[in-house]
Each structure stands twice: as C-alpha cells, then as structure tokens.
Amino acid sequence: MGDLFSSMLTTSGALQAYGRVLQVVQNNVANSSTPGYAKQEQVLEAMPFDTTGGLSGGVQAGAIQSARSDYADQAVRRETTLLGQAQQDVNSLSSLQTYFDISGDTGIPKALNDLFSSFSDWAQTPDDAVARETVLQHAADVATAFQQSVANVAGAAQDTETQITKTVADINELAGNLRDYNVEVLSGRKGDAGLDAQIHSTLEELSQYGDITVLPQNDGAMTVLLNGQTPLVVADHQYEISTAPVVPDNPPPTNPGGRAAMHIFASDGTDITSATTGGQLGSLLDFHNRILASYLGDAYQEGDLNQLAQQFADRVNQLLTAGDISDGSPGVPLFSYDTTNPSNVAASLSVATGMTADQLAAIDPGPPYAANGTALALSNLEKPQSAADEIDGQSYSEFYGSLASRVGDNLSQASNQLQVQQSAVAQAKNLQQQMSGVSLDEEASLMLQFQRSYEANARLLTVIDQLTEDTINILPT
Amino acid sequence: MTENMPEAGEMSDIRAGLDEVCALLAKPSPQALDSAAAILSGVVADLSAARRRRGRHAQRDEYRGIRRASRLARILLEKAAAYHAGWNAWLGSLTGGYCPGGAAAAPMARGRISIEG
User: Fold this and answer.
1) pLDDT value at position B94?
2) Domain region containing B49
3) In a domain, B104, yes or no
4) How many domains does chain B have?
5) What are the chain A neighbours of B87 within 8 Å (beta carbons)?
6) From the CA of A215, how many Å to the nearest CA of chain B?
C-alpha cells in the first residue's frame, strides 16, 4: 500500500508540475503579441528516487526561466536609436527643403532673376522712368524674399526648439515610468513576466529618443543612462534632464548677436549637449544647432542667408554709390540693413528709406564715361566677370543654389539612411525574436506534448486511484 | 542600346537577386544566411559580367537601384556579422571569462547543446 500511495503522490506531483508548464505555455501564447514580452520556460526538476528511503522519484516544477536575451535587446535598442535619428533627420530636412525653391519660380532665386533682368532693361534705357521704377520694385521684392526666407527658416528653428522641449519631456516621462517599474521590482515583483514586458517595451520606446544604456542590477532593477554616462534612472531615483537656449561664452562668441543654440543639461546641471548625438533628440539638436545655424547664423557665424544678403546688398550699393545720377550728383545706396548684427542682415534687408527711382545712378563717370555704365555693371552681377561680383567663387544665384542643393543632398542621404535603418531594425528584431520571442508553433507543439503527458498522467492517476480503491476493497475488513 | 550593354532583364534579375538577399538578411537565421550567400554569389557573378558590358549611359536608374540594394545588403550583412561576433564574444565572456588582454575568451561551446534524460 505504501508504494501505491507513494505512486499516487508522485503522479499527483507530476500533474501539478505539468499544470504549471501549461500555465506558462498559455501565458506565452496569450502574450505572443505583447510588446517587450519574452518567452518563458518552466523548468522541471527530477525528484530523488530511492525506494529504500521512500523516495519515489517523479518531477516537480522548478523555476520559471525567461528566454530574454539582454544582448539581443541591446542590439534592438541600438538600431532603434539610429532609426529614430534617421526618421527625425528626414522629417526635419523635408520641411526645410520646402523653403528652398531651386526651380527659380519663387523666393530668392526668382527675385534675384527679376532684379537682374530689370537691371538689364534699365541698362538699355537708362533714362526711362518705368525701367527705373521696375528696378526699385524688384529690389523691394529681393528684400522681401530674403525676409520671407529667413522667417521661414527661423520658423523651422522655432518648431525644432518646441520639438526638443517635447522630446526632453517625453524622455523624462518614460524615465519616470521606468523608475516606477523599478520600485515595483524592488518591492517584490522581480521576475513578473508582465512587468518585465512593460519595462522592456518602455526601454525600446525610450531608445528612439536617445542613445540609452541599460544596466540590469542584481536586485532586478534597471539602471538607465543617457549617452552612456548621464543617469536617467538608478534604482528608485529618477534624474530629469532639461533643455534651454544658450549663447556660449567659451570660446568667446565671434558673433555675439547670433541666435542661441539649444543645450541639454543633466539633472546636476552638467551640459551634455555635445554627447547627445543619438536618436531623435540628437537629430533635433544637430538640425537646430548645426544645419539651421549654418543658414541663420549663431554665436560663431553670420549664416549663409545673411552672408548672401549682405554681400549682394553691399556690392549693389558699392556700384551705385560709385556712379552718378543724371544731374551729376553721386549715387545713393539702394539697400539698407541692420549693420549692428551680422545675423540680422537678411531679416532687416530693405530698400533704403526715402529712395526714389530718379536717385538710381546709371552713369559710370569713368574714365571712360558711360551713360549706362553702372546699370550695365549691375546687370553683369547675374554672370560675374570679376571676383568682386562673386561670393565664395560663385555668382549670387549659384551661391543660393548651393544652399538649396545642400538641403537636398542632406535629405537624400537621410532618406537612404532611413531605408537602411528600417531594414536594420527589422533584422535586429528578427534576431531578438529568434532568441526570446514566442514561437506559436513551438508553443503549440509544447502544449500538445505536455497535454499528452498530462492526459497520460491523468489516466495513470485514474488507474492508480482505481487500483488503490480496488486494493482497499479487497483488503479484509 | 548597343550589343555590349547589359540587357534590361539582366539588370532587373540582378536587382531582384539583391532584393531577395536583403529580405533574407533581414531575418538572418542560419538557413537564411546560407541561402543569402548562394544567391549573393550568383548576383556577384552576374554583376561582374554586366559591369564588363556597361555603357556610359546605360540604364542609370537600374544601376542606381542596384547600388542602393547592394549598399543595403552590405550594411545588413555587416550588422548581422557584428551581431553574431558580438554574441559570440558575449557567450565567450560568460563561459570562459576574459583573456589577459581584455578580450572575451573563445566560447567554450559554440553550438547549442541539448541534453535529454
């Protein structure tokens, strides 16, 4: 009888163990689409078998093991950071490209072409009042085009600042969630599959915003660092990052009136901008502080749009003031702008106050004297014949074209990078899936396998139960 | 098109081969890597033959497409290789620790071991 009871206990123990396996399998199947979920396996442990010592063997349910691979998770996060960066690059550059028309039908190129054309017409009929008025009107159009272009790009800079602020807030919010998860882990939910899935899903979401490093601790909590060194979450503490516009003082600004750059600060006030290069945040910072600054200027540069506006206006003014008006008086400047701030030239460019058409100086006093010499020199600005009419070795229109094509080239590279990165993330996720994902086929076969074992054991239990009952019944009363 | 230029169909086949390699490399299981290697060998041979016959202005769009696809295949292959090398190093450090120079030791067992019974 002792052996029979022992067998019953063994079988009953096995049933419990198999029941636990089924629970784990069902949990895996139910969570096969849960973001961040990693397959779990129920370990079955052999019980000691020694008939003389009353140990009947069998199996018992051991620990539940997660198939999560930190290495695969890290690879996915790394590629996701690069994807976030590429996606943001494409978004930012796509919006910027709309402000740089290279067709010549709108904006600065059209305004320049129209002005050059009006200079040419004026050179044909230097005393014609209509031709002079047309020059004046198209000069005003050039000024407006520069103002509009700068306003558009400045608007993009403003939008980017808003996005940087929002991205920093998103990072802090996700870091806050991770801190809360750590608190739950530390309060005894270590190993909880649902919590584990939430943690890893949040980490993956966070990785699109920045380059994060995750260090799992022995107590189950996650330490999360930004840029490999700035703590965001350590155990039950969160360290918030912040952002602010900054005009740096070291090295001393060469253009003190320039636009401020956006900087990122760790919770202790350390400036971590230069280290923040990855993910959406890194892309936004690069777009604002490098790409847009190259057009609008900053503390160390005037910006290409301002350089173009200033050199063009200066050259036109120089030619006109060297010429004579028909009454013999010297010419006056056509354009004016804010001379106190090199980064404000394009935004402040306008036709000089009080300038009238009859003040346009068409005459080159020479020698040799030419009644249309200045007007002709102005029309020649379209196709420069001397270095004085060029900017960085290019005509003014070509220089603008190079600014526009720079955006196009950057966008083309970013689009290619985005395509590559989408494939790279898919690849990393496939590798992760191979290691820690739930395979429905595998789970189905496991389920079948364990169900058969369960059924077999159940039948065995019934048989043993029946046998025990029969044995009891045949015992003499 | 002159006789020494590659046929449009030939270029499309090369591009299709590269796209197939990229699709396989996006799911780099051992089987997928084996298949990708075989296709890639064929693509490389076809491409070499096509390049020898390339005209100056022949099918620029196709060439651009092939260049993009081959760049993607190269990057995916590099990332898959880096992943497996990194995984091997990680496994090596877990099973054999680190060498005096600081590099991870070679993995004690390279394959998956399954023990039953």
Assistant:
1) 76
2) 8-96
3) no
4) 1
5) 71
6) 15
- Helix (H) or strand (E) holding A30, with range, is helix A2-30
Confidence tier at B88 by pLDDT (50, 70, 90): confident
Alpha carbon separation from A351 to A46, A130, A137, A341, A384 (Å, rounded)? 92, 17, 9, 18, 23
Residue of B nearest to A423 (CA): B26
B78 closest CA partner among A418, A429, A424: A424
Domain-embedded: residue B116: no
Closest residue in chain B to residue A415, using alpha carbons only: B68
Examine residue B34 and state whether it is found in any structural domain, yes or no: yes
Is residue A470 over pLDDT 50? Answer: no
Q: What is the DSSP secondary-structure string of A53-84?
A: GTEE--EEEEEEEE---HHHHHHHHHHHHHHH
**Per-residue H/E/C for A99-117:** CCCCCCCCHHHHHHHHHHH
Please check whether residue B76 touches A, CB under 8 A. yes
pLDDT value for A445: 53
> Where along chain A do its domains lie?
2-67+437-474, 73-100+152-301+412-427
pLDDT for the residue numbered A194: 81
Query: What is the number of other CB atoms lying within 10 angstroms of the CB of residue B56?
Result: 6
Cα pseudo-dihedral A70, A72, A76, A79, rounded to 10? 110
Output the six-digit token pair for A125.
């009929």
**Tokens of residue B72, six digits:** 């993607």
Longest CA pairwise span in chain A (Å)? 144
Q: Is the pLDDT of residue A219 over 80?
A: yes
Amino acid letter at B50? A
